[in-house]
Design goal:
Helix content is 28%, strand content 18%. By secondary structure, it is of the alpha/beta class. Strands 2-3-1-4-5-6 form a six-stranded mixed sheet. Keywords: Nucleotide-binding.
């Protein structure tokens, strides 16, 4: 995978999901600054999306990526990004991922509705870091969105 940024609120599960997708055994802690993984996979801090004064930092971080993966936790009651923020760059693919579907208070219908209400088109991929099949489905989907490599 390359040219992909993962965005979402604090504790949406971005770092844990990236670790599963790129098969990395890193200790997941609080992301304080963007983390650039080989192949240009970017893990962004949740504050970049939640704190309006840091929205500019998010926009700078995602300027060069082709795909933005938006995590909407299944147990969240709101969509944390300001309206239109993720559509500033019209040439980006925006993928909606519903994370934490295994939480006891998860509501995937509400999460899908929040994504849809905020202009994130489906399909919405449901994931849990405890379900390898959901991670594999997301990985395969993201691979289909990768730009063609010319040799």
């Amino acid at each position: 995978m390359r040219h992909i940024a993962f965005v979402g609120e604090v504790d949406a599960g971005k770092s844990a999901l990236i670790n599963m997708l790129i098969d990395q055994q890193a200790e997941t802690g609080k992301t304080q600054a963007p983390i650039f993984y080989p192949g240009q996979v970017i893990d962004t801090p949740g504050e970049f999306i939640e704190n309006r004064s840091w929205n500019g930092a998010l926009l700078s971080t995602i300027a060069a990526v082709k795909t933005i993966v938006v995590l909407q936790p299944a147990n969240a009651k709101r969509f944390s990004a300001p309206s239109g923020l993720l559509h500033v760059y019209p040439n980006k693919q925006v993928v909606g991922v519903i994370s934490k579907v295994d939480e006891t208070d998860s509501d995937t219908s509400r999460a899908a509705s929040l994504l849809q209400q905020n202009g994130i088109k489906g399909p919405y991929l449901e994931t849990s870091i405890h379900d390898p099949d959901s991670i594999a489905r997301l990985f395969e989907y993201l691979i289909t969105l990768q730009p063609e490599v010319r040799v």
